[in-house]
Design brief:
The complex is a heterodimer of chains A (about 230) and B (about 500). Chain A is α/β, with parallel strands linked by helices and about 230 residues long. Chain A has two domains: about 1-75 and about 150-175 and about 185-230, Rossmann fold; about 75-150, no CATH class. In chain A, about 35% of the residues lie in helices and about 25% in strands. Chain A has eight helices and ten strands. Chain A has helices spanning about 40-45, 90-100, 105-115, 115-120, 135-150, 165-180, 195-200, 220-230; strands at about 1-10, 15-25, 30-35, 55-60, 65, 75-80, 155, 185-190, 200-205, 210-215. In chain A, the strands form two sheets. Chain A has a six-stranded mixed sheet, sandwiched between helices. Chain A has a four-stranded antiparallel sheet with strand order 2-1-4-5, covered by helices on one side. The longest helix of chain A is centred in the C-terminal third of the chain and has 18 residues, at about 165-180. Chain B is mainly α. Chain B has two domains: about 1-240, no CATH class; about 255-490, no CATH class. Chain B is about 75% helix and about 0% strand. Chain B has 23 helices and no strands. Chain B has helices at about 1-15, 15-20, 25-55, 60-80, 90-95, 100-110, 115-170, 170-190, 195-205, 215-230, 235-240, 250-255, 260-275, 275-285, 290-295, 305-315, 320-325, 335-340, 345-365, 375-400, 420-445, 450-465, 465-490. In chain B, α16 packs antiparallel against α21 (about 420-445). Classes of the chains: A alpha/beta (about 230), B mainly alpha (about 500).
């Protein structure tokens, strides 16, 4: 699905991302962990062609993301509020995103019914623009909009950070079910080691732009990670 | 306490991100404001001279006084469009140990620091000193000055009150505009005469200065009314909750045009739901009447036709000029999202062209009423309109790919120069002056009409080449896409 080849990105001489080779096969759930400044968000932005790599290339389905726009059709991402059009109502935003993927309104409405519990009654028909929603609810809108696109590649930056406990658990369940149903490749970053080890098949540990550990999740993984982060 | 609060406001003004960033912009801005005030002051000082010249032998004080009510009516409209409510700035103080009435008093005083409150002083006071003091003595002039000050205060608080009311119920807005329209219509048909009322009232005031108590009472009443209303409504949630339910809107006719239509619908919502672009829309509407200043009988003779290209481009292209200077930057808050979602760059750029064409065409149709003044104007506007949608739209999108400065949509509009940089200064000049490159030589050495034909013809040709332009602009945008994205991320 994704190959990152010899990719380097630096700001003012500081190397932020430096990945000689990384392959991500279809249908895997990958967790990205690392302290602040490890380069997780930068890596996501590189994947989405939002910043230019100094060197190397990122291939999505064998096509360089910086050259071809094909990836836009099957990639969904939510990194921060900068992905939401905040003066739309949540419904308008969902219809807009749906339209970009040729999904009719009725289709979108039907899809959103699955999210009733996740939205907890405070998003649809709330009479608010997205900018007036709380941080957590904005995040829910972003995640739902991603899933609405029925992506083959899903990228979420710290999805658990702003959610309340019940929503975190619901999100974990949804993420776990995804690859089984639709062969979706998922990339998430998180500071919550418990959640990450529970959801992900494979965990990449980043430090100063490098991937220093590439672990297939087992029962011991949590402990291994905890011992790394313990100072 | 109120002084401390004011000093905080002062700091917030100077320390806001966009203020600190560029000294050059502030200097230019300061010069513009100084220039405006100086011009107004000059008008104020030349009033006696001008009135003597235009109305020889008449009582110029009386004539001068007849203008004042007109000015204040105009002032009401200006305030309604330009003045903003100083509300949100109290938020951090509500939880502190500061009595509410002080906060409210602060809000009221704060609102007095406005450009529009200076204008009448600069405009009318020189005349009071130069002429009225002569004719009616010091007491009369002093009464007049006090009247001007308190009428200004009255207008200031009246409009703030009406604006606060319109937040709660839009019927206030409808009522307000109905009243204004009624006055204009009645005055136009000479059923009532604001001018006569104005001169009668002020002459009366000048001879009996104690009447100054009336405007003083009006001003204080407006202040107190505002004070009372605010005191009862100073709750965080009410300002917001009182706003009406936000409802979803779909523009079905646009949706049928596919992705580009969808993107245009997005632009429309952006304009209607955010302060700063909405302000630009209102300004554009106001500027449609700009031609009236230039389209006089004298100017309609052929030797003066150079100016018509400017007015034509300006009037029919006002939306491109105003909205276009931040074409992509309007979307800066969520540009990351847009650029990683399933929108191809050609469709994105094509939607901008469609938006420009649609709005400019609407403006062209509305402003075709200038054709009633002279058929020539219809022709010049036609040429300018073609040039705007054909060439200026391309220049606009091209320059947008050089604009790396983000815009925060939630910030208010007046004197907000966030996101303004070198590109914006070049922008308007490029749009307005470039057509003269083709026009001037032809108009000078052949015939103005040939010049207009060339401008319109070039616009038309360029319009037909639009698909070719889209390819070029996509290539240009790709070159700088990462710079634009990085700039927009930096807020």
């Amino acid at each position: 699905m994704l190959s990152i080849i010899d990719t380097v990105k630096s700001y003012n001489g500081n190397i932020v991302v430096n990945i000689p080779q990384l392959d991500i096969p279809t249908g895997e759930i990958i967790g990205l962990v690392g302290n602040n400044g490890a380069g997780k968000t930068t890596l996501f932005r590189l994947l989405l062609d939002l910043i230019r790599a100094d060197k190397g290339e990122i291939l999505s389905k064998e096509k360089n993301v910086a050259v071809s726009e094909d990836w836009k059709g099957y990639t969904a991402a939510y990194l921060d509020e900068g992905f939401l059009i905040n003066y739309l109502t949540p419904e308008e935003y969902f219809y807009f995103i749906g339209k970009l993927h040729q999904r009719s309104k009725a289709d979108v409405d039907e899809f959103l019914q699955n999210f009733e519990a996740f939205f907890d009654g405070s998003i649809l028909n709330s009479g608010k623009y997205i900018r007036d929603l709380s941080k957590g609810n904005q995040f829910k809108v972003g995640i739902a909009a991603c899933l609405l696109q029925q992506p083959e590649l899903l990228t979420l930056d710290e999805p658990f950070a702003n959610l309340d406990p019940s929503s975190q658990l619901r999100l974990i369940r949804m993420l776990k079910e995804l690859p089984a149903q639709q062969r979706v490749t998922v990339l998430i970053s998180s500071h919550d080691l418990n959640h990450v080890t529970e959801v992900c098949h494979r965990i990449l540990l980043m430090e100063k732009g490098r991937i220093i550990k590439d672990i297939d999740t087992t029962a011991d993984t949590l402990q291994e990670l905890e011992s790394y982060f313990e100072v | 306490m109120i002084l401390t609060l004011l000093s905080h406001q002062w700091k917030s003004f100077w320390r806001s991100r966009n203020a600190g960033r560029s000294l050059a912009i502030q200097i230019v801005l300061g010069l513009i404001i100084a220039y405006l005030l100086a011009s107004i002051l000059t008008i104020g000082f030349t009033f006696p001279h001008m009135l003597h010249k235009f109305y020889p032998g008449q009582d110029i004080v009386r004539i001068f006084c007849s203008f004042i009510f007109y000015y204040y009516s105009f002032d009401v409209v200006l305030r309604f469009t330009l003045q903003e409510l100083p509300v949100l700035s109290t938020q951090p103080y509500l939880g502190q140990n500061i009595p509410k009435r002080k906060l409210v008093a602060f809000l009221n005083i704060r609102s007095l620091f406005h450009f529009l409150n200076l204008v009448p002083l600069f405009l009318f006071l020189p005349f009071a000193f130069m002429e009225m003091a002569h004719a009616y003595g010091a007491a009369g002039a002093a009464g007049f000055i006090a009247t001007i000050i308190f009428l200004t205060i009255f207008n200031n608080f009246l409009i703030l009150y009406i604006k606060r009311r319109t937040i709660v119920s839009s019927w206030w807005l409808v009522g307000f505009f109905a009243a204004i329209m009624a006055f204009i219509v009645l005055d136009y048909f000479h059923i009532i005469s604001l001018g006569k009322w104005s001169s009668a009232s002020f002459i009366r005031l000048l001879s009996a200065p104690s009447l100054v108590l009336i405007p003083v009472a009006l001003g204080l009443a407006a202040w107190f009314n505002n004070y009372r209303f605010l005191l009862g409504n100073l709750y965080l949630d009410e300002g917001i909750a009182a706003e009406k339910e936000k409802t979803s809107r779909e523009y079905t006719w646009l949706e049928q045009m596919g992705l580009s239509g969808e993107l245009i619908a997005l632009d429309i919502k952006l304009i209607l739901r955010n302060k700063r672009p909405k302000y630009i829309l209102r300004l554009s509407a106001l500027f449609m009447a700009y031609g009236l200043i230039f389209y006089t009988k004298d100017n309609l003779k052929e030797p003066h036709m150079y100016i018509f290209l400017f007015t034509g481009i300006f009037v029919t292209g006002i939306f491109i000029i105003n909205y276009g200077q931040f074409l992509f930057a309007w979307h800066s808050n969520y540009f990351d999202g847009l650029m990683s979602s399933n929108i191809s760059l050609p469709a994105w750029i094509r939607s901008k062209f469609m938006l420009y064409t649609a709005v400019s065409t609407i403006i062209f149709i509305i402003t075709s009423f200038y054709g009633l003044i002279s058929w020539k104007l219809l022709v010049t506007h036609l040429a300018a309109w073609l040039y705007n949608i054909g060439i200026n739209s391309v220049i606009s999108v091209y320059l947008a790919t050089y604009n790396y400065k983000a815009i925060d949509l939630s910030k208010s509009a007046t004197f907000n120069y966030q996101g303004t940089g070198a590109v914006q200064w070049v922008y308007s000049f490029a749009l307005i002056l470039a057509p003269y490159v083709f026009f001037y030589p032809l108009a000078r050495f052949v015939d103005p009409w040939v010049g207009f034909a060339a401008v319109g013809g070039l616009g038309l040709i360029s319009l037909l080449l639009q698909n070719w332009w889209v390819d070029i602009l996509v290539r240009e945008f790709r070159k700088r896409k990462y710079l634009v994205l990085a700039g927009f991320r930096e807020k």
